């Protein structure tokens, strides 16, 4: 027995009429969705230098030290132009007088009647120039020497590091006295003597960074692409080791200033009519009881510069260290 098929009546099971177009009518096209606003896009990348500066600017001690250091440098460079007294000019009416507005001796005079503020600013020029030049010399020699030694490795590395050990064994004072006996006293020899010794620590630091970097993937990729060794050292290894190098340079500058001051204190530094902070401190020690300002003024400038450089070095260490991010 077969059942008769009923024609489709267009009603639901409960008898309600279906909408026009059958049980599944075509839907109206939905409006196209607009693209997401630019604000929701992924943030743009930040360079290493910009990230380091942003982190450094959040360190109040480092920024205050940087501002004070720039102020000291500008005052030492431009200050003598606005003072009425020259470096070796003598005021015959003021010998060893204290700070006074009379005759524009704002910080007093020394035992020879020369304006102390003028001599301190000229001495700052010498001390800061010695520090910057010697630090630059040690930076160039130490970075290149350490990068080449660490990259080549093997016997070349051992030979180069043994030479560094030999240089470490030579007393610094012996090297300075030897240079001055052979070439005579000259401020450029101070640059050479200090720079010829301070590059040893820089070379060891860069060598250690190079040994850690030369097995990284980007160095292996450069080898696979056939990049020359000189370009690998100068374009890949040295730029990636620049963080610790910058930090150490900020610590080398105050060390060089102290070495120059020590040499000048012993009479092996700059000679008249030039002066430096070390020479002024040496002169101030002899007049400490009768004229204490002769010791306090150059000591203040030297101590302020050293503190600024140390605080700035600590700030750069925190800003460039990826482990603190």
Automatic annotation (TrEMBL):
Family, as annotated: Belongs to the binding-protein-dependent transport system permease family. OppBC subfamily.
Name assigned to this protein: Oligopeptide transport system permease protein OppC
Domain of life the protein comes from: Bacteria
Low complexity bias (residue ranges): 10-19, 31-43
Record's keyword terms, sorted: Cell inner membrane, Cell membrane, Membrane, Peptide transport, Protein transport, Transmembrane, Transmembrane helix, Transport
Region (Disordered): 1-43
Residue spans crossing the bilayer: 61-83, 126-147, 159-182, 188-206, 245-270, 290-313
Source organism of this protein record: Salinicola rhizosphaerae
Membrane topology: Multi-pass membrane protein
Family annotation (InterPro entries): BP-dependent_transpt_permease, MetI-like, MetI-like_sf, OppC_N
Residues covered by the ABC transmembrane type-1 domain: 124-313
Compartments, as annotated in UniProt: Cell inner membrane; Cell membrane
Pfam families: BPD_transp_1, OppC_N
């Amino acid at each position: 027995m077969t059942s008769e098929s009923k024609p489709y009546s267009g009603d639901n099971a409960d008898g309600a009429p279906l909408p026009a177009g059958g049980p599944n009518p075509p839907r109206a096209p939905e409006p196209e969705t607009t693209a997401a606003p630019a604000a929701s896009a992924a943030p743009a990348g930040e360079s290493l230098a910009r990230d380091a500066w942003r982190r450094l600017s959040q360190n109040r001690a480092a920024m205050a030290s940087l501002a004070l250091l720039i102020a000291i440098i500008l005052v030492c460079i431009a200050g003598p132009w606005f003072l009425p007294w020259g470096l070796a000019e003598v005021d015959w009416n003021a010998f060893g007088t204290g700070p006074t507005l009379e005759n524009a001796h704002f910080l007093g005079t020394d035992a020879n009647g020369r304006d102390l503020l003028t001599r301190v600013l000229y001495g700052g020029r010498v001390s800061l120039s010695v520090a910057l030049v010697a630090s630059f010399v040690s930076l160039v020699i130490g970075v290149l020497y350490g990068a080449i030694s660490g990259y080549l490795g093997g016997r070349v590395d051992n030979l180069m590091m043994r030479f560094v050990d030999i240089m470490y064994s030579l007393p610094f004072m012996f090297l300075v006295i030897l240079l001055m006996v052979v070439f005579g006293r000259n401020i450029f020899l101070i640059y050479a003597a200090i720079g010829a010794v301070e590059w040893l620590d820089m070379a060891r630091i860069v060598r250690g960074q190079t040994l850690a970097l030369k097995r990284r993937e980007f160095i292996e990729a450069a080898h696979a692409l056939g990049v020359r060794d000189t370009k690998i050292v100068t374009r890949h290894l040295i730029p990636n080791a620049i963080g610790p190098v910058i930090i150490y340079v900020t610590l080398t500058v105050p060390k060089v200033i102290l070495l120059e001051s020590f040499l000048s204190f012993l009479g092996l530094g700059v000679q008249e009519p030039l002066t430096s902070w070390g020479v002024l401190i040496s002169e101030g020690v002899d007049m400490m009881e009768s004229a204490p300002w002769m010791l306090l003024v150059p000591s203040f400038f030297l101590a302020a510069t050293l503190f600024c450089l140390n605080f700035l070095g600590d700030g750069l260490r925190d800003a460039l260290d990826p482990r603190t991010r």
